[in-house]
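Check my protein:
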Amino acid sequence: ITLVEENAGHAFNAIETGSSEYSKLIRKNEEIIDFTNSELTKFLIKLSVDVEESDENTIGSYFHVLNDLERIGDHAMNLADYIKMLVNQDVYFSDRAIGEIVVMKETAQKSMDLLVGDKREQANELLVNVSKAEQKIDDMTDAYRTAQMDRMKNTTCAPEASIIYAHMLTDFERVGDHLLNIAEDFAKMYSK
């Protein structure tokens, strides 16, 4: 989870600074994340051959967590790639759009921070807090899409920036979904 969090942090920094310099770091980390995911999945498959049903459920939860972490890594790469596209096309977001992105970034980062470390003792509380953050991200996504449409109607938003912004909102929303999935799996594994 630490490497995924690091990649998400790099992507969030790329968004906030408008720098495409983070792309190389993210790609390098993504290769490690993908390799690790593959190897751990192979290990879990071998482990799951002769286990009791309760252990089978735990192994299934670990499969889900690995998949969600890998997907968060993919979304981090997407976010960094969008910044690269903006830089290459010499397109910029409005101050309002940047403010909205920063709020999304902060909410996603806080939710991710909740999942780092040993959370066995607080699994149910963690689920409640991550669930609230995920709902906040969903609500913000809806509100920000509406605001984006208003900016497009008023021609205060370049079409290229608008397309990239819409994709970014989707990636943030999906990161929130994956974080909630992880919190749910933690609650299943540790709330026994």
Summary: The chain has a mean pLDDT of 88. Helices lie at 2-17, 22-47, 53-89, 95-115, 123-153, 159-190.
